[in-house]
Amino acid sequence: MKKTILIISLLIVSFVNAQVFIGSGDNKFQVGANFQNTASGINASYDFGLGENMSVGFSTTYALSIDEDLDADFTDRFDIKARFNANLGNVVNIDENFDIYPGLNISLKNFGGHLGMRYFFTDGFGIYTELNTPFAKYKTDTLTPAQKLHNQFTINLGAAFNL
């Protein structure tokens, strides 16, 4: 019984000690699933803290599962973005383990924005979700269904890691 109480106490302390964004020099890596109309795939991102509430990084996505009627090659399936985040976890102050980060990104396909949220269970592991939307597409003509990949509203969700 004492061992069980000790283990539960240690787990609770490890959850309480997690901090989501520490500011300058902070490193976050995220990997997860990407969901969009007519496709789903894998997403990976990295963010580096520049200041108390700012970070920059990149995000890349590859559409693995697409509708059979889409004729999509590698350039349609792949996208990479440079991004800027405003990490507002300590501003909204919901929980010290929670971060909300709106941001802007510029990619191979468009200029857009995102709204992300992270929650860390321990110092090194958490979960994330991001909502992404394009503001301006580089191609202004009517897009083919394959060109609409990564040029539409998308959702990412998965695991987040402190490095």
List keywords for this structure.
163 residues; globular; 14% helix; single chain; mainly beta
Q: What's the arrangement of strands in the largest beta sheet?
A: 1-2-3-4-5-6-7-8
Overall average pLDDT:
87
What is the CA-based Rg, rounded? 18 Å
Helix content: 10-25%
Low-confidence stretches: 9-18
Largest sheet composition: 8 strands, antiparallel, barrel
Query: What percent strand?
Result: over 45%
Q: What's the quick description here?
A:
Keywords: Signal. The protein has 163 residues and is mainly beta. It has 3 helices and 8 strands.
Topology:
Blueprint (H helix, E strand, L loop, with lengths): L1 H15 L10 E10 L2 E11 L4 E13 L7 H4 E9 L2 H4 L5 E10 L2 E11 L4 E13 L16 E9 L1
Antiparallel strand pairs: 1-2, 1-8, 2-3, 3-4, 4-5, 5-6, 6-7, 7-8
Description:
This is OmpA family outer membrane protein. Pfam families: DUF6646. Keywords: Signal. It comes from Snuella lapsa. InterPro entries: DUF6646. It contains three helices and eight strands; from the N terminus they run H-E-E-E-H-E-H-E-E-E-E. The protein has about 160 residues and is mainly beta. Strands 1-2-3-4-5-6-7-8 form an eight-stranded antiparallel β-barrel. It is globular. The two termini are about 35 Å apart. Residues about 10-20 have low confidence and may be disordered.
